[in-house]
Amino acid sequence: MNKLPCILNSFIKGVETLSKACGIFAAICLASACLAVCHMVLVRYAFGIATIWQTEFVTFAVVAATLIGSPYVLLTRGHVTVDLLPHYLAEQPRRWLALTASLCAWAACAVLAWTGWTYFHEAWTFGWTTESVWGPPLWIPLLPLPIGLGILTLQYTVDILCLLSGRPLSSNNLDVVEDT
Q: What pLDDT does residue 179 have?
C-alpha cells in the first residue's frame, strides 16, 4: 500500500487549514485597524486630545493583514488574474503555464520570506524601535513579512504539488482523490 497519497493529502489539508487561519487573522487585523481609526477620530475631535499610537498601529495592522492574508487569497483564488492566454490553451499547456507561474512565484516568495526573516532577526537582536513618539519595537511590524510570505510559499508548494499530481487546486475537490 502506497502511503504517499495519504501523506500528500494530509500536507495539503494542513497547509490549507493554516492558510484559512491566516485569512481569519487578517480579518482581525483589519477590524482592529478600523477600531483604532474610530478611536483616533473620537479622541482627537470629540475630546481634543492628541493621539500617539493610532496612525502607526493602523499602518502596522493593514500591512500585517496584507502579508499574512496573502496565503488565504491564493487558496481561494481571490487575487486578480489575467487569463487571456490560458483561456485559449488546451488543458495540458494550461497546467504547464500554471506550473511555470507557480514556480516563479514560489521562488520570489521564498527569497522574500528569507530576507524578511533576516531583517526581522536583526531588528530583534539589536533592539530596534520605530522613531515615533510611541516607539514600539521594530520587530513587531517586521514579523508579518517572514510569516506571511513563508506560509504563502507553503501554499504555492501545495499548488505546485497539485499541478504535478493532476489534483484540482481547490480544497473543495480534494475529497475526490482516493487514498490508495
A: 40
How far, rounded to the nearest angstrom, does the alpha carbon of residue 69 sit from its chain's CA centroid? 4
CA quadruple 73, 162, 103, 79: dihedral, nearest 10: -20
Per-residue HEC secondary structure of the chain comes to CCCHHHHHHHHHHHHHHHHHHHHHHHHHHHHHHHHHHHHHHHHHHHCCCCCCCHHHHHHHHHHHHHHHHHHHHHHHCCCCCCCHHHHHCCHHHHHHHHHHHHHHHHHHHHHHHHHHHHHHHHHHHHCCECCCCCCCECHHHHCHHHHHHHHHHHHHHHHHHHHHHCCCCCHHHHHHCCCC
CA-CA distance, 57 to 40, in Å (whole number)? 11
- pTM (2 decimals)? 0.87
What does the pLDDT read at residue 178?
40
Task: Give the pLDDT confidence score for residue 171 in this predicted structure.
Answer: 52
137 - beta bridge partners?
129
pLDDT confidence of residue 32? 98
Q: Which parts of the chain sit beneath pLDDT 70?
A: 1-2, 4, 170-180
